[in-house]
TrEMBL record:
Taxon lineage: Bacteria, Pseudomonadati, Bacteroidota, Cytophagia, Cytophagales
Keywords: Membrane, Transmembrane, Transmembrane helix
Full protein name: DUF4153 domain-containing protein
Transmembrane segments: 65-85, 92-111, 117-134, 146-166, 186-208, 220-240, 252-273, 285-305, 317-340, 352-373, 393-413
Length: 414
């Protein structure tokens, strides 16, 4: 988008169209580019406009608001399908929980980015393939491949959402990083909405209980079931129409939690030596260890995505570098534990999935760590770190496809 801003810098009408098409991405790109454009009257005007913070929220156009309301209702109706069609909930929700939210958000961004009919057909085809595949898998009790397929299907649908978010822009790297930032902003906004909804639920149930009405069952089956899927949809709409809402919160959280997580991780690794626990012989501990790894990796990637759009001080880059280095060590321990368990007890679907995931994460972390080191050595710039993440995202998508669609067949639905 930065190149497009440069090209249309003398065309106010085109800049306005770009801004209205995607306010959040335009704002981020312009702020990164502005130091080069300072002194240009049009650029200075846009700088003042984008840094003006209105007192009231922007609710967008009536058409957009109506679309969000319809999308929320559709998501709620999908969530209610087990009730409408008498489907077993234990069968429906593990397989289809991703289809409650992701297709709706995918359709929203596809519409917002005016993707071509061909791209829309590909998105719809991939989504339908996932829907049919997961629901026609044999209903085998205690099936590891079914569980793995359900989990990685969420990553597959997340990847499809990313395709709709990126659209058909030429600068895919910048848009992929914007997609990561959007996910971080969405987590913050959705959490706030859910907290507010939880408070309202407690007050509502308490008030009705005081006058002798027990509405818990009705409320959860007819209000909460619509409210939960609506939260990320409304959160998406608010972050896209009001980038300033969490535009300052997310970088602060990234800056605050990166050093805290680094300290926690170092202390945790030292504590392992004295705890008597190890991931080599304790399966549950290995699972927790891998969950910790994924969580820390997500924090690193989100921090780097935020870092790439602003100028960072040397201490902040050092913190990210040290956090990446320590996480590589954690990944190495987890990977060696997986290899030990495979050599001792053989290959299983779970071990194969964890092994593949750990290898991919390790390679990505090594790339990010190397790029951060180059930045510290003044051999590269911060955008190079973001590029190391953006270029790698499709590889995770390919792995999600392999686990979702091939593992059940390769391991005989076990």
């Amino acid at each position: 988008m930065k190149e497009q801003i440069r090209i249309y810098l003398d065309d106010p009408g085109q800049l306005e169209k770009m801004y209205r098409a995607n306010k959040a991405s335009f704002q981020r790109a312009f702020r990164t580019l502005y130091p080069e454009l300072k002194g240009n009257l049009l650029a200075d005007g846009w700088h003042e406009r984008l840094n003006y913070e209105p007192d009231e929220l922007s609710w967008g156009t009536g058409r957009e608001l109506a679309l969000v309301i319809v999308a929320s209702l559709v998501a709620g109706l999908i969530a209610k399908l087990p009730t409408f069609l008498a489907i077993n909930q234990e069968f429906f929700y593990p397989r289809n929980i991703g289809f409650i939210i992701f297709p709706v958000l995918t359709a929203y961004f596809a519409w917002k980015n005016n993707v071509s009919t061909r791209t829309m057909a590909v998105i719809a085809g991939l989504t339908l393939t996932g829907l049919l595949f997961i629901n026609f898998l044999p209903d085998v009790k205690k099936s590891d491949t079914l569980l793995l397929s359900c989990i990685h299907l969420l990553l597959f649908l997340w990847s499809i959402l990313g395709v709709a978010f990126v659209g058909e822009t030429r600068n895919n790297e910048e848009k992929r990083l914007s997609y990561l930032r959007y996910n971080g902003d969405l987590i913050v906004m959705t959490t706030l909405i859910l907290i507010a909804g939880g408070i309202m639920t407690a007050i509502t149930l308490g008030l009705f209980k005081l006058i002798g009405f027990k509405i818990e069952t009705f409320y959860f089956e007819n209000v909460v079931v619509f409210g939960l899927p609506a939260a990320p949809i409304v959160g998406t709409y608010l972050t896209q129409t009001n980038p300033q809402l969490v535009g300052k919160v997310s970088p602060v959280l990234a800056k605050l939690f990166s050093p805290l997580v680094l300290v926690m991780l170092v202390i945790y690794l030292v504590a392992i030596l004295y705890s008597g626990k190890d991931p080599y012989n304790d399966r549950e501990f290995l699972l927790v260890f891998n969950a910790l790894l994924i969580g820390v990796m997500a924090i690193i990637f989100f921090s780097v995505a935020e870092t790439s759009k602003t100028t960072k001080s040397l201490p902040e880059i050092w913190i990210l570098f040290l956090l990446s280095t320590v996480t590589v060590i954690v990944n190495g321990i987890a990977l060696s534990a997986i290899l030990f368990r495979i050599s001792a007890w053989g290959i299983t679907p779970n071990r194969a999935a964890v092994l593949g995931s750990n290898v991919l994460i390790l390679l990505n972390l090594l790339l990010v760590t190397a790029q951060l080191f180059r930045v510290l050595s003044r051999k590269d710039t911060l955008p190079g770190v973001g590029k190391a993440i953006a270029d790698y995202l499709p590889i995770y998508s390919v792995w999600a496809i392999i686990v979702t669609f091939l593992f059940p067949l390769l391991f005989g639905f076990k």
